[in-house]
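Protocol step 4 of 6.
Sequence for ABC transporter ATP-binding protein (Commensalibacter nepenthis) entered exactly as in the expression construct, tag removed. Do not edit the line below.
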Amino acid sequence: MNMSAPASFIKLEHLSIEFPVFQLESRSLKKTLFSNVKKMMNNPQRHHQRTGAEIVTTANNDVVVQALRDINLTIRSGERVGLIGHNGAGKSTLLRAITGIYEPNSGHIQSHGHIEALLSTNAGMNPLLSGRENIYLRGKRLGLSTKKIQELEKDVEAFAELNEFIELPIKIYSSGMLMRLGFGLSTSIVPNILLMDEWFMAGDSNFQEKARNRLVSIVDKADILVLTTHSLPILQQWCNRLIWLKAGQIIADGPTEMILEHYKHAMTMDSDS
Ligand SMILES: Nc1ncnc2c1ncn2[C@@H]1O[C@H](COP(=O)(O)OP(=O)(O)OP(=O)(O)O)[C@@H](O)[C@H]1O
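Step 5 output, structure tokens:
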């Protein structure tokens, strides 16, 4: 971290995000669908429910999924935060909200520092351009000088190992090839704030090792890391703080070992139920 620059931070105040699910003209169909959802919500087994957010009807009678509800959170420089929780708890939505992909329905998001989000491999790439042209495109977007773009090109080309495919349009790439290029590009510049979805650690084992080494080096240099993963070893190794989400709300927040102990216990209870 540059000591003379203001410290990086992320601050979320009363953040709520909801997704409309039914925008149906037919009131009767909407009524039937929602009464089925209501029945499920009133089921006594529901407290054991492992997936999904709350589904509600708004004042306008629209049916929405409440992906995040009144999230208050500050993340400061030096923190390595893991977002945990069952499928549909709101982890990816929270990451995407911080990047600005999702607009809050209410509340505020403030941040300071350059954010890089490792969320999807082809984000910001043009499918009609070649791998090499996409590298140039990224360099231009980042406002790099010609010399810096040439360095970026060398670095990403060597990392992605696409050989002659680097000259071909990326729309013909396999998903693994796209991942190599996308990963190489997204990890070529060290951001202040690094946001990462767990699948970014996937890939073939040879590539995974290489990708991991590259990731470790940018994670070490970034001021803030926020990642979502279901892997307990990754949380233990990479994170010093865990935020546990359930149905769009924070139910626990604290040092990794302390939260993991409760989380593991809850998972055992779930598998027993
Ligand atoms: N674009 C969308 N439209 C409608 N509902 C959505 C959308 N994206 C997410 N959701 C809903 O919001 C809730 C939170 O989803 P999110 O992807 O944030 O969960 P998650 O905790 O990342 O889950 P997982 O561990 O399965 O990746 C879920 O109930 C999901 O169905």
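Step 6, annotate. The beta strands are 9-22, 54-57, 63-76, 80-84, 106-112, 115-118, 193-197, 224-228, 241-246, 249-255.
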